[in-house]
Design a protein that fits this description.
75 residues; mainly alpha; two-stranded antiparallel ribbon; 60% helix
């Protein structure tokens, strides 16, 4: 994580202090548990109307959105 913090240009001294303090451990743990409930096994994970996107491409995203629009129109 610290390597990535440096790569994206974060204030490394501040990041290290926050990371090492375990200040966000509970939040991270909750996010992981919530992801597991929804079946997330890796990131990124994208949901459209509660349905996980399985085809990570422009076409896949477009198809998922169109499917949900069609489904919404039938209600």
């Amino acid at each position: 994580m610290k390597k990535y913090a440096t790569q994206v240009g974060l204030d490394r001294k501040r990041f290290d202090a926050e990371f090492d303090s375990a200040k966000y451990d509970a939040v991270i743990r909750r996010d992981i548990e919530e992801g597991e409930v929804y079946g997330v096994e890796a990131t990124p994970a994208i949901f459209i109307n509660g349905v996980m996107l399985t085809e990570f491409s422009g076409d896949g995203l477009r198809a998922a959105i169109e499917k949900e629009f069609a489904r919404a129109g039938k209600r």
